[in-house]
Amino acid sequence: MLDEAEREELAKAGRTRKLKKGETLFTAGMSEAACATLLSGALKITSTDVDGRERILSLVHPSGFVGEMFAPYMRHDVVALGDSELCVFSGPAFAEAIERYPKLSQALLRRTQEDLYASRELLALTGNASAEQRVSGALLSISRAASDSPCHLARRFDLPISRGELADMLGLTIETVSRMLTRFEREGAIRRDGKRGIELVDPALLPLS
Amino acid sequence: MLDEAEREELAKAGRTRKLKKGETLFTAGMSEAACATLLSGALKITSTDVDGRERILSLVHPSGFVGEMFAPYMRHDVVALGDSELCVFSGPAFAEAIERYPKLSQALLRRTQEDLYASRELLALTGNASAEQRVSGALLSISRAASDSPCHLARRFDLPISRGELADMLGLTIETVSRMLTRFEREGAIRRDGKRGIELVDPALLPLS
DNA sequence: CGCCCCGTTGACCTCCATCAAGGAGGGTGG
DNA sequence: CCACCCTCCTTGATGGAGGTCAACGGGGCG
């Protein structure tokens, strides 16, 4: 999307930063406009409700974008799921870069639309679906993300997140997620391989497919 | 954001279209890249799951943007909630306009980010919250949207959607929404005025506030 | 008037959250 | 090397929130 010179110029406007697993990049309410692109690792965007329960709003993969470029404060928490490397920009610096490079805003527009659709997909998934459908939908979605082509299922993959995080993402509890995985395995749809490994034995057996 | 000449030029690239209440603008899966801005009225973006239940992913207000500019097919249904007027563009025509007017992609980026946050807010709201919290959250959010300032509550407003649509948006049933409204009224938090009218008598009594 | 759609209310029952207990690594220190 | 602990996962028992089914009310319209 951007050419080499533009990329370099942009990189100079930001500053790289490393995060360890569990470290926080942004906190909701922080009165600062800043944003970042993820170079390696994985992040989660979360919000915490009044009774202290965490809800995962989005997972961020390398080349993903987080933060606020227009709003004066952060709307959500951003936390590293594993050791990660980012390129962080101040809000004004990034806004200036956008003015300077029209292609940048186009690229970002594209990516933001992807994020928007991912968010709506999650919304649809957690909407009226049963726990069974949510977990199977998440498995299929993660399998798709793990494969090279976006509409192809990876037969064998590792869950990028823990049971608890998966539960937080789906609006379920750890126990329910665990029960569903057990059920899918008993029914021969999947096979569990260690804590994180999943093999899709017969995806057609998963509800909703 | 755009100046007058740009606006006019853009308007010429599109074609205005009127929709009556309930008419469909786009259907999910349609293999066509097209998009539109809403001039007046209101739209809903929905997805229908396997068992035929509809889920409202977003409400679109005037100056809102819907459709696909990059993807080759429509991901969701878009339906008019009331009589509406739009300016419709073909995907390629709009992509060209974006190339031509850098400010357009910046403006659209801003709006898309707003949509993204709205979507995530809804995600957070429908995540782990109880039916009580969801309905009260929706009331407050609609009240905020109905007032002139975005962080101020309108004391008296009309629900832009029916009970059924509100239920579809919150992942609840009509009956539950109805029961919650009854409860809020009994507890003195709101007063119902006809089918659609709501008056916030004591917003502090609403859970979660 | 009679129909139809939308909303309300009640009775029941299902699904999932909650509470509780136990198992399986994996890391640390003796 | 083993004992210990800690975190993550699994499994079971129980109860409650909300979905489902059913009946009724009321306003708009032909």
TrEMBL record, chains A, B:
Boundaries of every HTH crp-type domain copy: 129-204
Coiled coil: none
Domain Cyclic nucleotide-binding: 1-69
One GO MF term: DNA binding
InterPro entries: cNMP-bd_dom, cNMP-bd_dom_sf, Env_Response_Regulators, HTH_CRP, RmlC-like_jellyroll, Tscrpt_reg_HTH_Crp-type_CS, WH-like_DNA-bd_sf, WH_DNA-bd_sf
Keywords: DNA-binding, Transcription, Transcription regulation
Top-level taxon of origin: Bacteria
GO cellular component: cytosol
Protein name listed in UniProt: Helix-turn-helix domain-containing protein
Organism of origin: Qipengyuania vulgaris
